[in-house]
């Protein structure tokens, strides 16, 4: 998709240097993918904070190890 956007030159240059892209297009693609990944991680962190993971009371590491060995 072609997009026309008015982005300050210094911001584009910082993105280009930070991402190490070959050109402005590649740099912006890398930056956008990184942004989306970070947002996904932040959403997952929020979910875990709301509903923390917990282990069963009878959970022990050697029990899981035995299950894995018997596969």
Mean pLDDT: 90
What is the CA-atom radius of gyration, in angstroms?
A: 22 Å
How is the main sheet built?
none
- The general outline is elongated
Quantity of strands, as a count: 0
Describe what is shown at a glance.
The chain has three helices and no strands.
How would you characterize the overall build of this protein?
It is a single chain. The protein contains three helices and no strands. The chain has helices spanning 9-19, 24-50, 61-69. The mean pLDDT is 90. It has a domain at 7-52. The N and C termini lie far apart (49 Å). Helix content is 66%, strand content 0%.
Summary keywords:
71 residues, mainly alpha, elongated
How do the strands and helices of this protein lay out in sequence?
Elements (H helix, E strand, L loop, with lengths): L8 H11 L4 H27 L10 H9 L2
């Amino acid at each position: 998709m072609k997009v026309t956007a008015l982005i300050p030159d210094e911001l584009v240059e910082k993105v280009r240097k930070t991402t190490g892209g070959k050109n402005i297009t590649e740099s912006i693609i890398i930056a956008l993918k990184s942004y989306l990944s970070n947002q996904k991680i932040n959403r997952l962190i929020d979910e875990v904070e709301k509903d923390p993971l917990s282990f069963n009371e009878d959970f022990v590491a050697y029990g899981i190890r035995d299950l894995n060995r018997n596969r």
